[in-house]
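Bench log. Compound arrived from synthesis this morning; before running ITC I wanted a structural hypothesis for how flavin-adenine dinucleotide sits in the protein. Inputs:
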Amino acid sequence: MQVVYHDVIIVGSGLAGLRAAVEVAGKHDVAVLSKLHPLRSHSGAAQGGISAALGNAEKDSPEWHAYDTIKGSDYLADQYAVEVMCNDAPRAIIELEHLGVPFSRFEDGRIAQRPFGGHTSNFGKAPVRRTCYAADRTGHVCLHTLYEQSLRKGVSFYDEYQVLDLCMAEGAVNGIVAIEIKTGQLMLFHARAVMFATGGYGKAWRTTSNAFANTGDGLGIALNNGMPLEDMEFVQFHPTGLYRLGILITEAARGEGGILRNGQGERFMERYAPSIKDLAPRDIVSRSIYEEIRQGRGAGPMKDHVLLDLTGLSKEKIVEKLPEIESFAKIYLGVDPAEKPIPVQPTCHYAMGGIPTDANGRVSGDAEGREVPGFWAAGEVACVSVHGANRLGSNSLLDLIVFGRRAGKDINRYLDRICLTPIPLDTGAAARMSEKIAVLKGRDGGEAITPIRAELQNVMMENVSVFRHEQGLSEAVEKITALQKRAEAIRVFDQSEKFNTELLEAIELQHMVNYSKAVAVSALERRETRGAHSRDDYQSRDDASWLKHSICFLEEGGAITHMQKTVDLSLASSRAEFVPKERKY
Ligand SMILES: Cc1cc2nc3c(=O)[nH]c(=O)nc-3n(C[C@H](O)[C@H](O)[C@H](O)COP(=O)(O)OP(=O)(O)OC[C@H]3O[C@@H](n4cnc5c(N)ncnc54)[C@H](O)[C@@H]3O)c2cc1C
């Protein structure tokens, strides 16, 4: 089997992976592997913007930003990490600008900023304009800029290589097994440092804003290697997905003045969040929409959605500030948003949980936080944790840029000081993967992928979405356990070597059932309501028992073990405002 060596291997070419690569390039030999062309990574779909207390539009401060992030997280975020992120944000934006990101501007030439849900001034007093943007294509322009910079700095790219497993030796990560999609050949990549930036995992739900590639491979591989996942129960549903399709209508549409209305034309958010109304955090708006539908006040003949009304904005403003949204609404639903409200419903959007890391991206291998040498993670696959139980809009792009860079810097330090020669490669993982592929393709019986994946997506949508309860979650765990067994015995019908997407989807599905079970088990265990995790049977937050992170491990045979980890309340503890209290907007 072909073995390729690079000092550093980064898996994933979204903004987190590329930001780290730019940091390492020029200092060490770095390669980025991606199962997609880098510019197709989901980061390119980010619309609304990236937060930073620049104060270009009005007075703002990183401390207010940190306050909002911690409050938005329903106090589950690690406060030290939040302060690191919010303090670094203004620098990170200026740096992006200098790298070439064409941000939208105010008349006087400074970077423009817009309001976004949950971002306030003066510790919750009023909405603040904190989100920097480039029309509604912010992720797209950032991704292009960082890709150009990576090429300029000589990063090696392996496009359309799907990573299947990690190589470990002497307790450290020192390589990966990947399949070259074009040829079907397995390859080994040997390295001194490996970083995962494999993105989110919304594809386990039926209605999602996520790209097809967001199948949580990084999480599945971590679980398979005995590593934990943190806070998997916290999955954010964005309030405004296009009706029936889930395609995202950015929160910026409400930031620019859009209003949510029920079937009777009422601005219902006035009832649920009287002060910040349509710009309340996403978990609150999504629950409010479901509440309206439950009470029979939904829109349309089925009364199963609500309406996003942009008709109060001028046509020129929609075209200038929200051009993508205008074309999505026209193309997919035949609605011109300047003339008619857009039918919307909550859509599975963002995963707060992931592979636990510290604020330098180092992966924790156990519930005590002991690091796995040679292994880093950043971006949506990681849980630092800065978003806690609920992420504020425009804080993810910031997380990618800040913690992608910090992971890159930490890798440089590690390579400079600690690790001089690569640990010899153990080829066992590659042999196991080769055998697994032969079994998948060689089986006589066995089911196809599609029905198993569809069942999983239905279970997650029905039982593990916005509202949850004991019975539904127990049923979900039971059903997913059965799906794990069926996924294990899957059959790949396509025998070809080149571009065998059926084989790749089979492996993705095996990851999906495992991390989905971690989501369902953590949701069942957490007997309280916090952030995006809302339990009908435990309706209030229980700080005494649950101001704790969830940690999950995958056992042999597919069982999930669940335990708790302490929340880091250090640094910020001096401020009275950071002490958990009722979250009212
Ligand atoms: C529609 C949409 C709009 C959004 N808008 C905003 C916004 O306005 N502001 C904001 O802050 N956040 C937004 N978010 C969230 C944010 O965009 C994501 O959290 C973020 O882009 C994730 O970036 P990432 O670098 O972690 O991963 P991604 O950009 O998802 O990239 C993942 C990479 O990993 C690679 N990969 C995955 N598995 C494998 C494998 N097995 N082998 C090899 N490569 C692999 C993929 O090829 C890809 O390159 C939005 C999300 C969505 C879905």
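What the model suggests: The mean pLDDT is 94. Residues 501-525 form the longest helix (25 residues).
ITC booked for Thursday regardless.
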